[in-house]
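For the sake of transparency, this paper describes our internal protein records without simplification. An entry from our holdings is shown next, in its original layout:
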Amino acid sequence: MVLEMKVPSPGESITEVEIAEWLVEDGDYVEKDQAIAEVDSDKATLELPAEESGVITLKAEEGDAVAVGEIVCLIDTGAKKPEGGSDSKTETTKENKEEAPKKEEAPKKEEPQKETYASGTPSPAAKKILDEKGIDAKEVPGTGRDGRITKDDAMKAVPSMGTPTGGNRGETRSKLSLLRRKVAERLVAAKNETAMLTTFNEVDMSPIFELRKQYKETFKEKHGVSLGFMSFFTKAVIRALQMYPAVNSMIDGKEMISYDFCDISIAVSGPKGLMVPVIRNAENLTFRGVEAEVKRLAIRAREGQITVDEMTGGTFTISNGGVFGSMLSTPIINPPQSGILGMHNIVERPIAKDGAVVIAPVMYVALSYDHRIIDGRESVGFLVAVKEALEDPVELLMDGDVKKALEL
């Protein structure tokens, strides 16, 4: 019996996928549930498992765009599993034996070296001078007998301005994955279709440093996750979104949709590019809940296990470029959302505090927003609210009770 394997639907609104890589070859015997291919949708990279055991016949090539429901391979379920694979070893041995004589022809590759200089052969003295100047003899016209390059020719030779000499100038060309192309389209659309503006501020991270220093080990021992910066920033963002609901809104045609919940998207760098999984109803999570969810989603994204549903939606995005060393940036809105907060690296800087100059760990933060529905008052007020919460987390994020907030 021959089974026709069709492309399953990875999620709502997805009509086609791209064969990113076949994990098996045509004619291989595959086991049921074995991953036979990686397919890219416009939101994620997913594995395609074999529906039955048998010999596979591929019906699509890597890079092909295949519609959902289209046949991508056939599996002959009646075929017997091969024993040992000794035939392939024999074929490999035969191939090696056939290739052996070719290795004896290798010295012929030295022939091009005999014509190193196409426009003439330099004299020994001229060759030394050209080598010191880094000039290829091909670029020097010879005035000697039969076009020979003389010492005088070499002395007068001048390197061509802007012309590379002797360096490697190779290039490679590869097709962008469907996921990367979709991300590119969305980013360009965000720049072209929104009135994007960015406002900046700085945050003294000393209070959070002190809290993490005091409770980090106890928190990890009890909850099994680290007390990182993301829980503080997520909590601060949720508080600010509740204070400025316009930032937690988006445009749909001629209407503005505002949300009474906070689905926070977090930008994660995955093996196939940027992915943005969503923390659902983050306003209901504790510090422990946020840290556990961030860890779970980040691991799934980096291991290529994230699903389309886990990246669908989101009302606001947090992007942490600081983990890569970014000092300052203008993050691009994640459409159809209207705002994104960019975190950056934490650097000790001199700041004024209580009338004195002190050294403190400072982070620059950036809020990019859609000016069509978010005015300057809301945008600046939102970012100031985030700053205030991060600089006074005990009172504004923990209601004055650290141990209760951290569930210690």
